[in-house]
Structure formats: structure tokens, C-alpha cells
Amino acid sequence: MPEHFDRDSSLEELEGLRWPAPPTDTTPMVRNVYELRGRPVATLEPHELARLIGQDVGLPWLLPPAVEILRDTAPKQAEGGWFDDDLLYAVITRKPEVWAGVPESARELKEIVGVLTDVSRHVRQEIDTFLSALPGDDA
Fold first, then answer.
1. Picking from 55-59, 66-70, 116-120, which range would have the lowest pLDDT averaged per residue?
2. Are 112 and 106 in contact (CB under 8 A)?
3. CB burial readout 23-46, b (16+ within 10 A) else e
């Protein structure tokens, strides 16, 4: 999986796959996911990344920029004494095999979550699960 790519490209371009239009009776969330796949990755906001990542869409291309956002925001928010975030939750709850494809991002996320000391018990459990699934010296 690529960790370095043209972020001015959309997921549709990066994957070389354009999904057909969503069914007319689909939910607003599904319509939103379809729409977000057509936007350049560089234009996606953190909550949009969280939505796509939480749906396991475009993970090879979305996890690296999501981890970068967390790298830039986690220390400052941790200083404030509390950090629970949709993007963090979406990222740390991805399956372990996904992280094997983006090892640089996995290593960086391991460092990021290390500075988060005051998170909810639920998020702490997810962080611990993420950390325990990482390979020993590789992540």
C-alpha cells in the first residue's frame, strides 16, 4: 500500500475505480461517502477522513494524512488534559492487517498515542488493542 502519493488526486483516481451512483433510496451517509471519494484527498477535512476511514474506504491513501493530522493535533489537545476524537477513533480501530501495509504510519501513530494520557476508558481500550496488535520491533 502506498504511503506517498499525489494528494491532489481523488480516491477514485488513486484506486482507478469509479463507483456507480449510489441507489436513490440510500442513506445520507452512503451518499456522502460516494461524494467524498470523488474529491482530492488533500481537500478532505478531518471529520470527512474519519467518515471514510470508519467505513474502511481508501485506507491506503487516507491513513497517512489522518496520522499526520493526529501528529499535529494530539500533543496540543493532550496538553489541555482531554483527547477524544472521531478521527483518532476511526484510525485506531482499523484491523491490524491494514497497518501492515502502512508501517511508517503505524510507527508514527504508536508515538502519537503515547502522549495521550487522559482519554476515555473506551478510547484507552481501543488504543491498547491497537498497540497490542502491532508487530514488536516493526511498529
1. 116-120
2. no
3. eeeeeeeeeebbebbeeebeebeb
**Alpha-carbon distances of 111 from 26, 79, 106, rounded to whole Å:** 39, 16, 9
| Cell numbers 494520557: residue | 117
CA distance 90 to 66: 9
Q: Tell me the pLDDT of the chain averaged across its residues.
A: 87
> Is the predicted pLDDT of residue 23 greater than 60, yes or no?
yes
Buried-state track 55-66, b at ≥16 Cβ within 10 A, e below 16: eebbbbbbbbbb
User: CA 132, 125, 45: angle at the middle one, nearest 5?
Assistant: 95
**SS3 category, 107:** helix
In this structure, what C-alpha cell is assigned to residue 59? 485506507
Helix (H) or strand (E) holding 5: none
Instruction: Read off the pTM.
Output: 0.86
CB 124 within 8 A of CB 132: no
Q: What are 112's three cell numbers? A: 502519537
* Phi, psi angles (nearest 5°) of residue 10: -85, 165
